[in-house]
Amino acid sequence: FLILAGIIISGFIVRLYFFPYELPISQDGFLYFTYAIDTMILGELPKAFTMPNNGWPLALSAFFTLFNFDTAIEFMTAQRFLSISFSVFTVIPIYYLSKKFFGTTLSLICCLIFVFEPRLIENSLLGLTEPIFIFLITCSLVLFLSDREKITYFAFWIIAFAAMIRYEAMILLIPFSIIFLFRFKNTGKKII
Question: How far apart are CA 116 and CA 19, in angstroms?
Answer without folding.
Answer: 15
